[in-house]
Every structure is written in C-alpha cells, then in structure tokens.
Design a protein that fits this description.
The protein has 468 residues and is of the alpha/beta class. The protein folds into three domains: 3-126 and 387-458, GroEL-like equatorial domain (GROEL, domain 1), CATH 1.10.560; 133-176 and 356-382, TCP-1-like chaperonin intermediate domain (GROEL, domain 2); 182-315, GroEL. The chain is 52% helix and 16% strand. The protein is built from 17 helices and 15 strands. The chain has helices at residues 3-19, 45-51, 57-77, 81-100, 105-122, 133-144, 147-160, 215-228, 241-254, 266-273, 318-331, 335-348, 362-385, 393-400, 407-415, 417-426, 440-458, and strands at residues 30-32, 40-42, 165-170, 177-187, 189-190, 199-207, 211-212, 232-236, 238-239, 258-262, 295-303, 306-310, 351-357, 387-389, 437-439. The strands form four sheets. Strands 3-13-4-12-11-6-8-10-5 form a nine-stranded mixed sheet. A two-stranded antiparallel sheet has the order 1-2. Strands 7-9 form a two-stranded parallel sheet. A hairpin with a 2-residue loop joins strand 11 and strand 12. Helix 2 (45-51) runs antiparallel to helix 3 (57-77), helix 6 packs across helix 13 (362-385) and helix 11 (318-331) runs antiparallel to helix 12. It is globular.
C-alpha cells in the first residue's frame, strides 16, 4: 500500500472509532460542538458522521467516502447508519490483508460487489412479515432505545398504517406527546432556498392556478398576514423572479412569515385547507382575492419534493372531491394513471400522527427527536418489508453461508460479524436468547452501501487535494 492508500484507510478507521460506540441499545452518545448553536448530544450515526472532520485532509477524504454509505443508508432505511460505517471499515481492513498478499484492487472490487449480491440473495430466507402490534413495539423500542418512546411510535404507526403520515416537531413544554389529525401529503417544491423552513404552524393558505407575476396581485393578502402576524403559505404553479425576490426581502426585513411553493396539486390543496381556489373557472382572479378566500393549516411540514399538511378544516366539498377521484380511478385503464390515482387517494384520506418532542433542555430534546425519527423510519420499513433477528445476528447467519474459498465472499464472511461484535461489546447479551428484531430493509441497505463505499476506496491509489 502506498502513502495515499494508508492515509485513506486511517481516516476510515478514525471515523469508525468515533461512531462505533453508539451502536446497539446500550450505545453511548457523542456530544457535538456547534459554532452557531447549543451542543448537540446524539447517538445517531449519520448525524455524527456529518459533523466529523479531520484536520488531515488526506485522511478526511477517506472518511468522507465512507460517510456516503451512512448517508445513503439513512435515506433508504432511516436506521443502520452506524452499522454501515462499522461494516465498511471491517471490509476495508480485511481487504488490506488481501492487497498485501498480492490481490489486485480491481479484482477485489469486483469480487466484493459479487459477494454483496450473494449476501443479499441469502437475506430473504431470514425475513418474516410482521402482523402483531408486539412486533411493531419491539422494532420501535429497539430503534430508539427507549420503551416509552417506542410505544409512542408503535401506537402512531399502528393507527396510520404503513402509508400513513407521521410528523415530528419540537416543543418547549418539556413533555413528549402523540396526537392524531387529518393529514395530506402533496407534491410541492419550495420556490426559493431563501424561503425554506422546516414547519409552519397555524398558517393561512392561498392557492391559485397559473403564475403569480407581480407583488401587487397579492399585496392585500401580504398586508393582512403582516398585520395579524399570521404565517402564510402561497401555493401556485409558478412565480415571477421579481415576486420571489420581493418575498425573500420582505421576510428578511419585515419579518413576513411566508413560504411560496410550486405545485400541480392545486385542487387537492384547496379542498384540504378549505381554501377557495383562485382560478378562472371559479370566476376569481388574484387581484380580487381577499383574506376570506384563504384556507387554514394547523401545521405544514416541508420535506424533499413534498409538503405534509395537517388540517382539521377541510372543505365541505372534500367528500365529493374524493368521490370524483374514485370515479376517475374506476374509469382509468392505464396502469400508470391508476397507480397515481391510488397514491393520490391514499395521501388525501390518510390519518396523520404528530409526535411533539419536549424535554427539560434543548440538547436532550434534539437528541430525543433524532432517535424517534429513526424509529419511525425503521418501524415503517419493518411493516413494509418484514423483519429479521436483530443484535447483529442476521449478519452472522449470512456470513456463515458465504464461500471462504472466494476472495470477495471470504472478506465479507470475516467483515459481517464486526457489527455483532461491536453491539455485543457495547451491550452484552446472550445470542441464544436474543429477541431483538430489525427491519430487513436496514440489513439490505447496510450490506449494499457499505460494500459499495469500501470497494471504491480499495481501488483508489492516489489523492489530488489543495491541502497536500
């Protein structure tokens, strides 16, 4: 191994040394110093990895590549982020021995990717579907490492279902509570990153077809929002650049609580918030719109490419609107169109759970919110794709069926048990009586992403960096 490879490998192991203490139900927390806020205390692997930075730029590049495995796992499964780092590190350390014995890097890469495919082919035989509330409770509690929080997540998901909506917020009340409301998920994009927020509460909602071209068109609406200090959500098909610039400026200087989104789901948004759709077919233009045409949302949550609206003030025509979509579904013959209509119906008729997280301190509240967020994702995946034995034991079982005479499978055979060993190191348990269960999606994502990240680093033999 040359100097560049050694630096990359050191960076990976230093990242692993930091995050591995967080894995398992008895994993320790890490405190993160944040320059622009209070310290964050968490055992969430991906959150820790995002904040991890080494002063040695060459080592840091190695850590950054392995971070991608954790980030991808978080996106796909919502859990297993530390496991991905632990496994990727174990693969690289095993591969290092093979490199020293003369194996070629590209040969190892291809062998490892093939071994990962073999491991994923073995996974289904260990998966079982869950049908009992006790299983939901088990997965949720195992993920967030707290019985009370796990029970809250399980209760929420048992009510809203696998396609239901679970929203999280932080409060200053010092207690964590679960409530249910009517929730709708709509495709929408925030019109400018400078208008981005995570949530809005008790917002007025303006829904209009076409484009908002001038500030003059919506000036009475904006003045009413400023006067009453009311958050305002604008939903339109498009906005003139001058309008977006003016909204950004007004929010920064006048304190206007406004978010503008573009969406094609205008009718759905209007009936959900009981807003009057500003449209020619309703004989209404923006210039004639007033506060009485606005709808209301108890809460709006902004996610990637969509908004979740929690509202108890649906339009009186909501039931009729649902019936029209059902009629359209019954008449549709195209599979793609039918699938989209089914998704639309599911989103419009869902019940939403709202978990409001509160603890005595801000640091504890943020740490708890991250744990509950992971538990929601992991438990949802478990409902959808089934579960496997937890505690790292499924990785052990898969490893036992890999061929020790194939170099890729041999590396993975020795690397997979690293997750079990680290969990057992943090939280001693009897493998024979282990009752922990994990979402199968997590195992799949961890193996796939960890192997991919490690394999690409193994083939790297040089570094170009301004810091060198």
């Amino acid at each position: 191994m040359n100097k560049a490879q050694k630096a990359l490998f050191r960076g990976v192991n230093r990242l692993n040394d930091l995050v591995k203490i967080t894995i398992g139900p008895n994993g320790r927390n890490v405190i993160i110093d944040r320059a622009n806020g209070s310290p964050l205390i968490t055992n969430d692997g991906v959150t820790i990895a995002k904040q991890f930075k080494l002063t040695n730029q060459q080592e840091n590049l190695g850590a950054d590549v392995i971070k991608q495995a954790s980030l991808k796992t978080n996106t796909e499964a919502g859990d297993g982020t530390t496991s991905a780092i632990v496994l990727a590190t174990a693969i690289m350390n095993q591969a290092k021995r093979a490199l020293r014995r003369g194996y070629q890097p590209m040969q190892l890469k291809e062998a490892l990717l093939a071994a990962a495919r073999k491991a994923l082919e073995l996974l289904p035989q260990y998966v079982r579907q869950i049908h009992k509330y006790e299983d939901l409770l088990h997965v949720a509690t195992n993920s967030c490492a707290n019985a009370e929080d796990g029970a809250m997540v399980a209760k929420a998901l048992s009510k809203v279902g696998v396609e239901g909506l679970i929203s999280l917020e932080m409060n200053q009340l010092g207690t964590t509570q679960l409530s249910f409301t009517n929730g709708v998920k709509l495709a929408a994009q925030i019109a400018s990153p400078y208008l981005k927020v995570n949530t809005m509460h008790n917002a007025k909602v303006l829904v209009t077809t076409g484009s908002i071209n001038t500030m003059q068109e919506i000036l009475p609406i904006l003045e009413d929002a400023v006067q009453n200090k009311t958050p305002l959500l604008l939903v339109a098909e498009d906005y003139a650049p001058a309008v977006i610039n003016a909204l950004v400026l007004n929010r920064a200087k006048a304190g206007l609580q406004v978010v503008a989104v573009t969406s094609s789901a205008l009718t759905d948004c209007a009936v959900v918030t009981n807003a009057t759709l500003i449209a020619p077919e309703n004989d209404l233009t923006l210039a004639r719109a007033t506060a009485k045409h606005l709808g209301h949302a108890n809460q709006v949550v902004f996610e990637n490419g969509q908004i979740v609206i929690l509202s108890d003030e649906k339009s009186p025509t909501f039931a009729q609107h649902i019936d029209l979509i059902k009629d359209e579904l019954n008449a549709a013959t195209d599979d793609y169109h039918r699938t989209r209509l089914k998704e639309r119906l599911a989103n419009l008729t869902a019940t939403a759970g709202l978990i409001s997280v509160g603890c005595p301190t801000e640091a504890e509240t943020m740490e708890k919110r991250l744990r509950i967020e992971d538990a929601v994702a992991a438990t949802t995946n478990a409902m959808r794709d089934g579960v496997v034995t937890g505690g790292g034991l499924t990785y052990l079982k898969i490893a036992q069926h890999l061929n020790p005479h194939d170099i890729g499978e041999r590396i993975l055979r020795h690397a997979l048990p690293a997750i079990y060993r680290q969990i057992n190191r943090n939280y001693h348990f009897d493998a024979q009586t282990c009752t922990a269960i994990d979402a199968a999606t997590v195992i799949k994502s961890v193996i796939q992403n960890a192997t991919s990240a490690a394999a690409i680093l193994i083939t790297t033999g040089a570094i170009i960096s301004n810091a060198i």
